[in-house]
Amino acid sequence: MQGTNQTIMQDFQILRKSGNVQSSVSKVECYVCGKGIQDGHSITAKTLPHGIVLFCDVHYSLQNP
């Protein structure tokens, strides 16, 4: 989107020994509505009993009154 700011954060480690580093990427979108940073929403991960899920700013606030 032109004229909008987007932030992508990634945690990484620098390995001291040589070898191949493998990485994977998946689309970041809300578990409830499917919207993501490309739609202007912030995304937050939350650990629930059945695993880690991602929520947009609208649906995360509904999960944390």
Structural account:
- With 65 residues, this protein is an alpha+beta fold.
- 11% of the residues lie in helices and 18% in strands.
- The chain contains 1 helix and 2 strands.
- Strands 1-2 form a two-stranded antiparallel sheet.
- The radius of gyration is 15 Å and the shape is extended.
- The relative contact order is 0.20.
Q: What's the layout of helices and strands?
A:
Blueprint: E1 43-48, E2 51-56, H1 57-63
Antiparallel strand pairs: 1-2
CA(first)-CA(last) distance:
31 Å
Order of helices and strands: EEH
Uncertain residue ranges: none
Strand order of the largest sheet: 1-2
Beta strand %: 15-25%
How many extended strands?
2
Coarse morphology: extended
What's the gist of this structure?
It is built from 1 helix and 2 strands. It has 65 residues and is α+β, with helices and mostly antiparallel strands. Strand 1 and strand 2 form a beta hairpin.
Which features does this protein show?
65 residues; alpha+beta; 1 helix; 2 strands; 11% helix; extended
